[in-house]
Write a structure and sequence with these properties.
The chain is built from 12 helices and 30 strands. It is an alpha/beta fold and 658 residues long. It has an 8-stranded parallel β-barrel with strand order 23-24-25-26-27-28-29-30, surrounded by 5 helices. A 6-stranded antiparallel beta sheet has the order 3-2-4-9-6-7, with no helix packed on it. Helix 10 packs parallel to helix 11 (559-576). It is globular, with a radius of gyration of 25 Å. The relative contact order is 0.11. The structure holds (2S,3S,4S,5R)-3,4,5-trihydroxy-6-oxo-oxane-2-carboxylic acid.
C-alpha cells in the first residue's frame, strides 16, 4: 500500500483489535501430498427439513443420536447444492429453519489405527448456521455461510477396535437475524383474518435468493499429528528481484524442522529457506500479471514446505505446496497500481447461481464462466456479495483474473443492524475471509460491505471499525466498501482506499431517459472525486433485460435498452477513465435468482423469475449487450496493455464473433 493513511490504520488495528478476536488455527485448502490424504464426501446425503411449528423437533427428538431414517422419512439431497430447488415441494423452496443432512462414511484402516495421523472434517460452507455431530457426538458449530470450517475428529475415530464407519449429521439453519451476515428479520403476521396462526415471513434486504444448504464440498482429510497449520505469504519487488516473505505456523509439537523451497513454473528451485519465517529472494523474477495486462499473465511459483518433527510415537513429516504469485498492489490519489503500473478494472459482478443447483458449486459451470470471462475480455470481478468457493479463487490465480473479495456484508439497510454484536461478528467474518484468501495473488482488494446505509452516523463508526480491523489483518491490500449513498452524506467513505459506487441512472430513476445518463454520471464522479480525492470504480450499473425482448427505439426491459444504457455509461466512463476512474464492473455477468419481490425502495414484485440484468442469461447465453461489452473490453485491453502490444482473444472457437 502506498497510501500513508493505510500505514496508520495498519498500526492502529492491532492495538484496537489484536487481542479482541482471533481465530483458532489456519484454513489451508486441503490437498493431497506424501503426508496428506483426502476423502471427498460429495454425492447423495440423506436429508430432512424440520417442518414442525417451532422447527425444533430435531433437537427435541435428538435426531443426531441415531441414523436419520430411524426418526422419520428422508429424501436424497445432492451435495454440493442448495436444497431449495431440488424437490417439487414448494415448502422446501421457501423453507426457513433447521434442515438436517446425514451421510455415512467408511474410513481407511490407517486413518483409524495410526495414532500419528490426524483426521479432519472440513465443510466448505453451510449457510447459515451449522451444528455438526460425528457418530452422535456434538463436534462443531459455525455461524455464517460462504466460508469453510473444520474440526479435528481424530479422537472420535481412533477409539478402540475398527470403528471405521462414521455417521456425520449436520443441522443447518438458514434463518437470518439482525445480527447475522447478511442480516434479516422474521416478521410474524398476526391478522387472523388473513394469515393462519403463527404465520411468518423472512424479510431480507438484499437482492438474491437466500439459497441454503451444503453448497460447497464436504471432505475428510488427514495430516500428521504435528502439522503445517497455516502459511502466510506476502510479496514485494526490488529492482528485478521478487521478495517472498513467508510465515508458517506449526501445530502439535515444538520439536520440528521446517524447510522451504520456491520452485518456478518449470519446477526449478529458485530460492530456499528454513524456519517458521523468512524472506526468499528471486532474481530475474517473473511477476504475476493480470490477464490481458501483460503478455505473460498469471505466473505462479510454488512454495514447497516440508516439516519434520519428533513425536512421542516417533518421527513424522508433513508436506504442503502453496501456489505463489509475486506482485505488488498500491493505490495513489487517482490510480490503482499493480506491479507499479496503472490497472483498469474492466470486468463484471457475479453471483454463485445457476439452475436447480442454486449456489451449489459446480465444475462445468465454473469453467464455462471463466471461458466466458475470457471471451468477454473481462480482467476482473467482484465476489458480490459474499466470498465465492475456494476453487473459484484458485482459477483466478491461474487465469490472471483480478478479484475484489467481498464479504457477506450485504443488506445492512436498517439502523438496528449497526449494533455491537453485528460489528463483532462482521470483524470475525473478515478474519475468516482474510485467513482463507490472503495468499491469492488474484485478490487485490477487500470489500467489507455492499450498500450499507452509510449515511447513518452509526454506520460510519461501524465501517471505520471493520475497515481498520481488516487493514490490521492484512496491511498489504487496499480495503473498500461499495456505496450507493450520496457523496456528501456518506460516513464510511473517509476510511476506504478506493471509492466504489453503484448507480442505476435511467433504471431506478428517470425511467427510460437514457439521455440523462452522461450528465448524471459526470456529476456523480466529479462530486465524489472533489470531496475524497481517491480513485473511483463504477462498481455496478446495468438494466433489467429479458433475453429476446426487442424494441427500437429502445424501451425498458429490451435488449436494445440494455445496450443503449451501457453505451451511455461508457461515454461517461471514457470522460474520466484516464483521470481517476479506475474501473467499471457491469451488473451483472448473468441473470440470477432472487425473491419474487425487491425490498427497496418499496417491497414490490419487480422481479420476473429473478434479476435479469445479466449480459448472459442464467443458462450462460449472450444477450446483445454481451457483444457490445466484449468489443469495449478488448479495446480497453489493447490500450492499457503493458508493454504495449495487441492482445488477441484466447478463445479459439470464437471466430464466429470476430
Ligand atoms: C444493487 C445491489 C445488487 C442488486 C442491484 C439491482 O445496487 O448491489 O445486489 O441486485 O442493485 O439489480 O437492483
Amino acid at each position: 500500500m502506498a497510501r500513508g493513511s493505510a500505514v496508520a490504520w495498519a498500526a492502529l488495528g492491532p492495538l484496537l483489535w489484536g487481542c479482541a478476536l482471533g481465530l483458532q488455527g489456519g484454513m489451508l485448502y486441503p490437498q493431497e501430498s506424501p503426508s496428506r490424504e483426502c476423502k471427498e464426501l460429495d454425492g447423495l446425503w440423506s436429508f430432512r427439513a424440520d417442518f414442525s411449528d417451532n422447527r425444533r423437533r430435531g433437537f427435541e427428538e435428538q435426531w443426531y443420536r441415531r441414523p436419520l431414517w430411524e426418526s422419520g422419512p428422508t429424501v436424497d439431497m445432492p451435495v454440493p447444492s442448495s436444497f431449495n430447488d431440488i424437490s417439487q415441494d414448494w415448502r422446501l423452496r421457501h423453507f426457513v429453519g433447521w434442515v438436517w443432512y446425514e451421510r455415512e462414511v467408511i474410513l481407511p484402516e490407517r486413518w483409524t489405527q495410526d495414532l500419528r495421523t490426524r483426521v479432519v472434517l472440513r465443510i466448505g460452507s453451510a449457510h447459515s448456521y451449522a451444528i455438526v455431530w460425528v457418530n452422535g457426538v456434538d463436534t462443531l458449530e459455525h455461524e455464517g455461510g460462504y466460508l469453510p470450517f473444520e474440526a479435528d475428529i481424530s479422537n472420535l475415530v481412533q477409539v478402540g477396535p475398527l470403528p471405521s464407519r462414521l455417521r456425520i449429521t449436520i443441522a443447518i439453519n438458514n434463518t437470518l437475524t439482525p445480527t447475522t451476515l447478511p442480516p434479516g428479520t422474521i416478521q410474524y403476521l398476526t391478522d387472523t383474518s388473513k394469515y393462519p396462526k403463527g404465520y411468518f415471513v423472512q424479510n431480507t434486504y438484499f437482492d438474491f435468493f437466500n439459497y441454503a444448504g451444503l453448497q460447497r464440498s464436504v471432505l475428510l482429510y488427514t495430516t500428521p499429528t504435528t502439522y503445517i497449520d497455516d502459511i502466510t505469504v506476502t510479496t514485494s519487488v526490488e529492482q528485478d528481484s521478487g521478495l517472498v516473505n513467508y510465515q508458517i505456523s506449526v501445530k502439535g509439537s515444538n520439536l520440528f524442522k521446517l524447510e522451504v523451497r520456491l520452485l518456478d513454473a518449470e519446477n526449478k528451485v529458485v530460492a530456499n529457506g528454513t524456519g517458521t519465517q523468512g524472506q526468499l529472494k528471486v532474481p530475474g523474477v517473473s511477476l504475476w500479471w493480470p490477464y490481458l495486462m501483460h503478455e505473460r499473465p498469471a505466473y505462479l511459483y510454488s512454495l514447497e514446505v516440508q516439516l519434520t518433527a519428533q513425536t512421542s510415537l516417533g518421527p513424522v513429516s508433513d508436506f504442503y505446496t502453496l501456489p505463489v504469485g509475486i506482485r505488488t498492489v498500491a493505490v495513489t490519489k487517482s490510480q490503482f497500481l499493480i506491479n507499479g503500473k496503472p490497472f483498469y478494472f474492466h470486468g463484471v459482478n457475479k453471483h454463485e447461481d445457476a439452475d436447480i443447483r442454486g449456489k451449489g458449486f459446480d465444475w462445468p459451470l465454473l469453467v464455462k464462466d471463466f471461458n466466458l470471462l475470457r471471451w468477454l475480455g473481462a480482467n476482473a470481478f467482484r465476489t458480490s456479495h459474499y466470498p465465492y468457493a475456494e476453487e473459484v479463487m484458485q482459477m483466478c490465480d491461474r487465469y490472471g483474473i483480478v478479484v475484489i473479495d467481498e464479504c457477506p456484508g450485504v443488506g445492512l439497510a436498517l439502523p438496528q443492524f449497526f449494533n455491537n454484536v453485528s460489528l463483532h461478528h462482521h470483524m470475525q467474518v473478515m478474519e475468516e475471509v482474510v485467513r482463507r484468501d490472503k495468499n491469492h495473488p488474484a485478490v487485490v482488494m477487500w470489500s467489507v460491505a455492499n450498500e450499507p446505509a452509510s449515511h447513518l452516523e452509526s454506520a460510519g463508526y461501524y465501517l471505520k471499525m471493520v475497515i481498520a480491523h481488516t487493514k490490521s489483518l492484512d496491511p498489504s491490500r487496499p480495503v473498500t466498501f461499495v456505496s450507493n449513498s450520496n457523496y456528501a452524506a456518506d460516513k464510511g467513505a473517509p476510511y476506504v482506499d478506493v471509492i466504489c459506487l453503484n448507480s442505476y441512472y435511467s433504471w431506478y430513476h428517470d425511467y427510460g431517459h437514457l439521455e440523462l445518463i452522461q450528465l448524471q454520471l459526470a456529476t456523480q464522479f466529479e462530486n465524489w472525486y472533489k470531496k475524497y480525492q481517491k480513485p473511483i470504480i463504477q462498481s455496478e450499473y446495468g438494466a433489467e433485460t429479458i433475453a429476446g425482448f426487442h424494441q427500437d427505439p429502445p424501451l425498458m426491459f429490451t435488449e436494445e435498452y440494455q445496450k443503449s444504457l451501457l453505451e451511455q455509461y461508457h461515454l461517461g466512463l471514457d470522460q474520466k477513465r484516464r483521470k481517476y476512474v479506475v474501473g467499471e464492473l457491469i451488473w451483472n455477468f448473468a441473470d440470477f435468482m432472487t425473491e419474487q419481490w425487491k425490498d427497496r425502495p418499496l417491497k414490490a414484485p419487480t422481479r420476473v423469475l429473478g434479476n435479469k440484468k445479466g449480459i448472459f442469461t442464467r443458462q450462460r447465453q449472450p444477450k446483445s449487450a454481451a457483444f457490445l461489452l466484449r468489443e469495449r473490453y478488448w479495446k480497453i485491453a489493447n490500450e492499457t496493455r503493458y508493454p504495449h502490444s495487441v492482445a488477441k482473444s484466447q478463445c479459439l472457437e470464437n471466430s464466429l464473433f470476430t
